[in-house]
Specification:
Blueprint lengths: L1 H16 L5 H12 L4 H24 L3 H14 L7 H7 L4 H12 L3 H19 L4 H7 L5 H12 L3 H8 L1
Helix pairs in contact: 1-2, 2-3
């Protein structure tokens, strides 16, 4: 048991600095290993963890081109704008550290990730408001906002008018 624990402790400082691994992964690894009750279970868990980490590193190395990675993130956001999207969730999806993702996105696009998500959602909301008669509450939900009032606040801040005013103006 000590052999595996020592090698994990030795690897933690290295893994923690590796920008392609989600921060939560290291803690999850430790918890998984601590739960093992036999040497065989520990060896099997350790082997599985290392294989998964190698696969994540291999995946990340294949997409190390920063612009290509940002493009893939943008495509993901455009495809999943209706779902809850957060920095941590996107970082886990793309196997990168949340801080690195935030900095990378800002450096490559000159725009904050949260601002981009909002822009995509508002663009979809504008399309729905212009092309249909769906209730504003339904437009908000379909644009990825669970809170109707928050959607109206964000929409008005971005466009200078309420969703209803926008609908009337665009018809």
């Amino acid at each position: 048991t000590e052999i595996y624990t020592l090698s994990l402790h030795d690897a933690l400082p290295i893994c923690k600095d590796y920008k392609y691994l989600p921060v939560t992964t290291i803690g999850d690894i430790y918890k998984q290993l601590v739960q093992c009750r036999t040497f065989r279970a520990l060896a099997d868990a350790y082997r599985q963890i290392m294989l998964e980490l190698l696969e994540r590193i291999r995946y990340a190395a294949q997409s190390n081109n920063k612009q290509q990675l940002v493009l893939r993130i943008k495509q993901y956001i455009k495809s999943h704008y209706q779902s809850p999207l957060s920095l941590d969730q996107l970082a886990n999806e793309f196997f990168i550290n949340p801080s690195y993702l935030s900095k990378l996105f800002k450096d490559e696009t000159a725009e904050k990730l949260s601002d981009y998500i909002t822009a995509v959602r508002l663009e979809k909301a504008k399309q729905m408001l212009s092309s249909g008669s769906a209730r504003i509450q339904d437009v908000a939900v379909n644009a990825g906002y669970d809170d109707y009032r928050y959607f109206c606040t964000v929409f008005k801040k971005a466009t200078g008018m309420t969703p209803l005013q926008y609908r009337v103006k665009s018809v």
